[in-house]
Design a protein that fits this description.
The structure holds two protein chains of two kinds. Chain A is of the alpha+beta class. Chain A has helices at residues 9-30, 36-40, 42-54, 95-105, and strands at 58-66, 73-83, 91-93, 113-120, 141-152, 155-164. By secondary structure, chain B is of the alpha/beta class. Chain B has one domain (4-156). Helices cover 43% and strands 18% of the residues of chain B. Chain B is built from seven helices and five strands. In chain B, helix 1 packs antiparallel against helix 2 (35-42) and helix 1 crosses helix 3 (44-52). Chain B is globular, with a radius of gyration of 17 Å. Chain B starts with a strand and ends with a helix. The chains are: A alpha+beta, B alpha/beta. Chain A binds chain B through residues 3, 5-7, 11-12, 14-15, 17-19, 21-22, 25, 29, 34-36, 39-43, 46, 50, 90-91, 152, and chain B through 12-18, 44-46, 48-49, 52-53, 76-78, 81-82, 84, 109-110, 113, 116-117, 120.
Chain lengths: 165, 158
């Protein structure tokens, strides 16, 4: 007898949410910063990611790397959410693509810090621990798209980063 | 020779990595609200990060104590959804009896920050390079297998 795994939308949400967090953990590590602050809030972030992916409210996850003294943005990493779920296809997480592009872009200064921001569509339900935020200005920067970074069954996230023009 | 017991937990995408860790904590603490449970839950984020990296797929989370040693692995992707290879059954002993310790397998390039983050919460929960953890496990399992080999000739002989 053979068996085939049945993919549900919840499986895809779990896979994509876990691997978006893994990808940001890797980005923080690759740019030379300490991921401890990100993983400290792992469960709170997962609750927001999974809840808003389930309801298809989540549009983008943003990692701002900035100078805490001047508040100036140093670089920014985006994960644009792609809602095209069919349930077909394998599991895809491309860490090497992130590593390669960070090697090109260079390390963050040691005094830099970071924060994670989730962008949602209007009507998204409140999630405990999350409130309104304003993104730092990207004036004078250009956005570089990298394509699909995390994907399962048509639900995925495309990475992009911002660098000085 | 020490007794070794293996358990295998379903992880992503059957359940999130953080939930996987909480299930492992339930197995180890057997529902008791102890200091050990608080320490294990305090490192949930670090453990979830390690689980998401698939480090415990081939290298065990090793739990030692004054009793049997417990090795915990995770399965992922289709194997996690199917769940045929999972064994999350309760243990018939206290895996944290006496002087306990938990060693988490970890990607070599994550080791420094993971060890530092764990140190903030516990001296009993540590991390090691998953390659090192893997070879230690293999050696230990090989020696356990050798120690348990049956002497068929002697057993069946007159």
């Amino acid at each position: 007898m053979t068996a085939v795994a049945v993919n549900t939308y919840t499986h895809s949400v779990t896979y994509v949410a876990d691997n978006i967090l893994k990808s940001f953990k890797d980005i923080i590590k690759f740019v030379g910063l300490d991921p401890a602050k990100l993983v400290q809030d792992w469960d709170t972030t997962m609750r927001a990611l999974t809840g808003w992916l389930e309801g298809q409210y989540l549009t983008m996850v943003v990692l701002e790397i900035f100078n805490p003294k001047t508040n100036e943005l140093i670089t920014r990493w985006d994960m644009d959410i792609v809602y095209g779920w069919t349930g077909d296809g394998g599991f895809w997480t491309d860490t090497e693509q992130l590593r390669y592009n960070i090697r090109k872009a260079g390390l963050a200064p040691t005094e830099a810090t970071y924060r994670l921001i989730l962008r949602v569509n209007p009507g998204a339900p409140d999630v405990s621990g999350w409130g309104d935020a304003t993104l730092r200005s990207t004036a004078g920067m250009v956005r570089q798209s990298l394509g699909s970074t995390v994907e399962h069954g048509g639900l995925g996230a495309n990475a992009a980063y911002w660098r000085k023009a | 020779m020490s007794t070794v017991v293996r358990r295998t937990f379903k992880s992503t995408p059957a359940r999130p990595a953080s939930t996987t860790w909480r299930q492992i904590v339930e197995l180890l603490t057997q529902g008791r609200d102890s200091t050990a449970r608080k320490e294990l839950l305090a490192v949930e984020g670090v453990a979830a990060s390690i689980i998401t990296d698939k480090a415990p797929q081939h290298a065990a989370v090793v739990v030692t104590c004054d009793g049997p040693r417990t090795r915990i692995y995770c399965i992922y992707d289709d194997a996690a959804i199917e769940g045929d290879d999972a064994n999350e059954d309760a243990l018939g002993y206290d895996p944290l009896k006496g002087d306990w310790a938990v060693s988490l397998p970890c990607e070599a390039e994550d080791l420094a920050w993971v060890q530092n983050a764990l140190k903030q919460h516990s001296s009993r929960i540590t991390a090691r390079d998953k390659v090192e953890a893997s070879s230690t496990t293999q050696k230990s399992e090989a020696s356990a297998a050798a120690a348990l080999e049956i002497d068929l000739k002697g057993f069946l002989g007159p």
